[in-house]
Design a protein that fits this description.
Layout: H1 2-10, E1 16-17, H2 29-39, H3 53-67, E2 76-80, H4 81-93, E3 99-104, H5 108-116, E4 120-125, H6 132-136, E5 143-147, H7 159-172, E6 175-179, H8 200-203, E7 205-210, E8 222-226, H9 229-242, H10 248-258, H11 264-281, E9 297-301, H12 309-320, E10 322-323, E11 325-326, E12 335-339, H13 345-368
Parallel strand pairs: 1-10, 3-4, 3-5, 5-6, 6-7
Antiparallel strand pairs: 2-8, 7-8, 9-12, 11-12
Helix pairs in contact: 2-10, 3-10, 4-5, 4-9, 11-13, 12-13
């Protein structure tokens, strides 16, 4: 959908893009300053495949300080965004045919990556509360994949839920990949890392981080993974022939970004936008949308209107030039995902008005039929 938006824009058409989250914020000033300083250096050499030693040391210190994960530099690999970290983690943790559990709705890359690696994918509907009863009903699996904070629902796992997951991993002998890319985008509650426990390495927990959304650095492709040391060595061996090290400029940007911590002004702006859009949809009878506890997306239940949200999304971009992500792409027909952080407020309001106009049109046509 985002590619279609780009093609329409190349033709000179005005399109509002809610299909992915593209922040209207610039990258933080320290990030831009760090890159400018790196450009003044006479050389930008290749680095070690897993990242500059100083950067890996710094990221390990960040994990200990902010996430309470007992990590050292040899537990960290710097990657080209979260997707490379995901692919390489899943590659070294599984063999073709192994079962991986993905909770639905899901970031599309989880399923696509597992398909590329020939894995058996079990989709399970994520409950409001993850507890022992839910976990015990899951099948035997090599890897459980989690997203905390969650894309697209904005769910933030509680300490009790994380404790139940750790107990399940110990009992089952399953490993876990948890994507914590939105750790700094929490509006309500507090983010806790699954690997914040003494036996995280024994349990086989890999944690993925990205600067893309937390620091408005979508195009920088700056991410990293924290994993048991033996898996990190395997991921380095894999990354070497694929891309080698992350570009030196991106590593400079990553060092500056992950040293910042949270970005309060960005979070306050997103919270205000979240509340605005949820308020605009509140009186609309055919959509149910709760204010998410985190993240750059809104997740709307339109099943009262239609479960064919692919058709809804196609009509919306064809007739109104507004792009959204249909729920089918995330495993849940009858829902739509809205990336609400792009452009200015006036554009945001126009896009929401177009979604409501199409929905009202469909609702009227359904009532007449």
């Amino acid at each position: 959908m985002h590619e279609r938006v780009e093609l329409l824009k190349l033709r000179g058409e005005a399109v509002i893009d809610f299909s992915i989250a593209i922040s209207h914020f610039p990258a933080p000033a320290p990030v831009r300053a760090a890159v400018r300083a790196a450009l003044d250096e006479p050389l930008l050499p290749y680095t070690a495949v897993g990242g500059l030693p100083a950067l890996r040391d710094m990221l390990a210190a960040k994990l200990r300080r902010e996430n309470h994960i007992d990590a050292q530099a040899h537990h960290v690999i710097v990657t080209n965004g979260a997707k490379q970290a995901l692919y390489q983690s899943l590659y070294v943790m599984t063999d073709p045919g192994d079962t991986v559990i993905v909770l639905r709705p899901h970031w599309p890359a989880y399923v696509a990556t597992a398909q590329l690696l020939g894995l058996h994918i079990v989709l399970a509907d994520q409950p409001d509360v993850v507890d022992a009863a839910f976990l015990d009903a899951l099948p035997v699996a090599k890897v459980l994949m989690l997203n905390n904070p969650h894309n697209p629902t904005g769910k933030v796992y509680t300490p009790a839920e994380l404790g139940a997951i750790r107990a399940w991993l110990r009992a089952r002998g399953s490993a876990c990949i948890v994507d914590e890319s939105y750790e700094k985008l929490v509006f309500d509650g507090e983010h806790h890392s699954l690997a914040a426990c003494p036996d995280w390495e024994t349990l086989g927990i890999t944690t993925i981080f990205s600067a893309s959304q937390s620091y408005a650095m979508m195009g920088w492709r700056a991410g990293f993974a924290c994993a048991p040391a033996v898996w990190i060595k395997a991921m380095e061996a894999l990354q070497g022939p694929i891309t080698a090290a992350v570009p030196a400029l991106t590593q400079a940007a990553a060092a500056a970004a992950f040293a910042i911590g949270a970005v309060p002004e960005l979070l306050a702006d997103y919270r205000a936008r979240r509340d605005l859009v949820v308020g605009l949809f509140a009186p609309v009878p055919w959509i149910a949308m709760a204010a998410p506890a985190s993240g750059p997306y809104l997740w709307g239940d339109v099943s009262a209107l239609t479960v064919d949200t692919v058709a809804f999304a196609e009509t919306l971009i064809d007739d109104y030039r507004v792009a959204i992500m249909p729920g089918e792409a995330l495993g849940c027909p009858g829902f739509i995902r809205i990336g609400y952080i792009a452009d200015d407020e006036a554009t945001l309001r126009r896009g929401v008005a177009a979604i409501i106009a199409l929905g009202d049109r469909w609702a009227a046509a359904g009532a007449a039929h």
